[in-house]
Amino acid sequence: MFTFSLTLIRHGETQYNREKLLQGQGVDTPLSETGVQQGEAVGQYLKDITFNNVFASNLQRAVQTAEIILRKNTHSSGMEMVLEPLLRERGFGVAEGRPKEDLKNMANAAGQSCRDYTPPGGETLDQVKLRFKKFLKILFKRMLDEHGSSGPDASAGASVAGDTANGSAAAASDVASGGLADDGLQGLSVHVLVVSHGAYIRVAIRHLVEDLKCSLPAGVKMSQLFSPCPNTGISRFILTLSQSESGPVLSAARCVFTNRKDHLENLTAAE
């Protein structure tokens, strides 16, 4: 048994975000000035957490955000990140570069909800989920190959059930805010950082909660859990792996919090 933390972060704001335009995969824009400040704020918030492995979508808004976070980090500043195409944003096909309102209108015309609608040439939600499942398979193998055989792991028994860790208690009052940067990390020695995109992270959280049946913080509302992730919003899961003949298997999972944005409070006040 081997337990590690997975911290998911959405990239900082881009000009397209500000103007409510869809980016997807075809529009590869850098962070706006606000996006850089958001990246610095989330980096400062997480600066004392030692990330052993860092993965980022290979689109520049995610790469830039990950670089800023690592630069701010006390322990991981020299670390190399893995640029992973499997973490790219959902492809929105013909809707990329167009206002989000256009996507809503296209969905209405097709008689579908905006969330479930796939524009021509775009990715379905199931295709995005398949990419995330492929990423998890790669991640799990890497975790056991790199960290899983380093002797008895003290983290293996860490409160995966979610009823004893400080993180669970802190997150119970409000799954998105009011906690500490190291919520859920007590007793764990391996921490993974993933920087990706809004629509992708929403699909990832839904897969972890609905398909992989991870336990949830007390009192959390599903609407809050699956709400859109803000720029540089933070979500955290504690995952326990075991080895089987067919490879690594997820034996337990716990959600500590989703879409936290405490680090942005001062930025919002300054605007």
Label this structure with key terms.
271 residues, alpha/beta, 6-stranded mixed β-sheet, 17% strand, globular
Tell me about this structure.
The protein has 271 residues and is of the alpha/beta class. It has 9 helices and 6 strands; from the N terminus they run E-H-H-E-H-E-H-H-H-E-H-H-E-E-H. The chain has helices at residues 15-18, 33-45, 60-72, 100-109, 125-146, 166-173, 198-211, 222-225, 265-270, and strands at 2-10, 53-56, 82-83, 191-196, 234-244, 247-260. A 6-stranded mixed beta sheet has the order 3-2-4-1-5-6. Helix 3 links the parallel strand 2 (53-56) and strand 3. Helix 2 crosses helix 3 and helix 5 (125-146) packs across helix 7 (198-211).
Helix/strand layout:
Layout: E1 2-10, H1 15-18, H2 33-45, E2 53-56, H3 60-72, E3 82-83, H4 100-109, H5 125-146, H6 166-173, E4 191-196, H7 198-211, H8 222-225, E5 234-244, E6 247-260, H9 265-270
Parallel strand pairs: 1-4, 2-3, 2-4
Antiparallel strand pairs: 1-5, 5-6
Helix pairs in contact: 2-3, 5-7
